[in-house]
Design brief:
Number of strands: 4
Shape: globular
Helix content: 10-25%
Strand content: 15-25%
Number of helices: 2
Order of helices and strands: EEEHEH
Structural class: alpha+beta
Length: 88
């Protein structure tokens, strides 16, 4: 569990890690699959993460089979550009 409020990058993530939503809010262009049982908790558990280029459907299917459903956080890369326009 990451107990600080430090903003994380995709390079900081690891499977099984528990993070706050705020810590991953600046990650764009990445798919972060979280444990649906922790989706409403203070800390969410990362089950898998990838980009469009590293996406592994077999891993996603395994998560879906194990949990019955999936919870995904995804912010497209173009959202980053929208924020930069408004950050004056």
């Amino acid at each position: 569990m990451v107990k600080s409020n430090k903003k994380l990058t995709i390079d900081d993530l690891s499977v099984g890690m528990k993070v706050k939503f705020e810590q991953i809010s600046d990650i764009y262009g990445a798919w972060i699959y979280i444990n649906p049982k922790t989706a409403h908790d203070e800390y969410i558990e990362v089950l898998y993460f990838c980009t469009d280029e590293t996406r592994d459907e077999a891993k996603i299917d395994a998560i879906t089979k194990k949990y019955g459903k999936i919870s995904v956080i995804y912010q497209p890369e173009f959202y980053r550009d929208d924020e930069e326009v408004f950050d004056d």
